[in-house]
Sequence to fold (111 residues):
Amino acid sequence: MRLAAAALFALALSSCAQTPAPLEAIESGDAIRGFAFAQRNCATCHAIAAGDAWSPNPLAPSFQTVADTPGMSGRAVNVWLASEHPSMPHLIVAPEDGDDVWAYMQTLRSR
Ligand code: HEC
Fold:
């Protein structure tokens, strides 16, 4: 019975689209650390905050857009961050930092 109640509670949480994903639901990485990391390393070009649609660099997608991109995953973000991009020069991001950033991005998902 307690199990059923817990399952119902989890269901209620996940069906509420307006609430950011509960942090426990995120696979790996630390969303708080990811946000701090993004503020230092990504915010010069990307809009990183929830509801922030316009990036300082208009070519850089907002993190909300990245989070909402179908098929986007921690792996995809890390692959992106580990390869050379003329648009994102001199960025060397450790996979742990990439996981944290992705954990943070997942809290931005609007769908
Ligand atoms: C110097 C500016 C700059 C910085 C700093 C920067 N980015 Fe970007 N980023 C861009 C631009 C411009 C694009 C889009 C153009 C492109 O595809 O090359 C992009 C694209 C991306 C994409 C790809 C989105 C997609 O749809 O494929 C991801 C993911 C990303 N950035 C993550 C990050 C993260 C995480 C950081 C911080 C660690 C960061 N970026 C720092 C400029 C930057």
